[in-house]
Each structure stands twice: as C-alpha cells, then as structure tokens.
Amino acid sequence: MPVQVRIPAPLRKLTNDQEIVETTGANIGDVLNALNAAHPGLIERICDEQGNVRRFVNIFVNDEDIRFQQEKATPVKDGDEVSIVPAIAGG
Q: CB 3.0 to 4.6 Å from 6: which of 27, 33, 43, 83, for a disulfide?
C-alpha cells in the first residue's frame, strides 16, 4: 500500500486534476521526487531553488507538520497520508 498524497486545488492541473496521488518513498524528499517524476513541474511549486520546502507551503504526514519533525527527512511508510497545503495569507 503506497503513500497517499493529497494535492491542493492550485496544483491539480499538474496531476490531471487528481486530488489524491499514490506514490512511494522512505521519506518526504523521496515522495516529492517520485511525485515530480510522475508529474513534472510539481516540485518547483513546492520547493525553492535550494530544494527546501517553500515557506508558504506546509506539508503534513498524518496531520503532523514536517517542520516540527525532520523536514524532508521525515520518514513515511505505506498507508501514510501526506497533505500539501499552501499557506493562506490574510490581513
């Protein structure tokens, strides 16, 4: 059973309008690379030029923010749900 990645609406044009994409990987970095291999252009919207997750993008593994875990080294296992959530700016 692979990892399920929940894709936010603004990025679904890159995943053929799929809300949930299944992929594999040992950690978030692997998952992002696998997503980009299957859906080219996705990683540029999620990561900056240095390969770090952009400040305005939040990634959760089973509702836990990876910023409070091990960032892209956060481990994932089969059956985990990864959510990519663009931050909402307000004022």
A: 83
Extract the tokens encoding 37. 């291999």
Rg (CA), the chain: 12
CA distance 12 to 49: 22
* Terminal alpha carbon distance of the chain: 41
Q: How would you class 45 by CB atoms within 10 Å of its CB: exposed for 0-12, middle for 13-18, buried for 19 or more?
A: middle
What is the pLDDT confidence band of residue 91, given thresholds at 50, 70 and 90? low
pLDDT digits (tens, 9 = 90+) for 31-86: 999 999 999 999 999 999 999 999 999 999 999 999 999 999 999 999 999 999 99
Q: Enumerate the H helices of 1-91 as residue ranges.
A: 28-38, 42-46
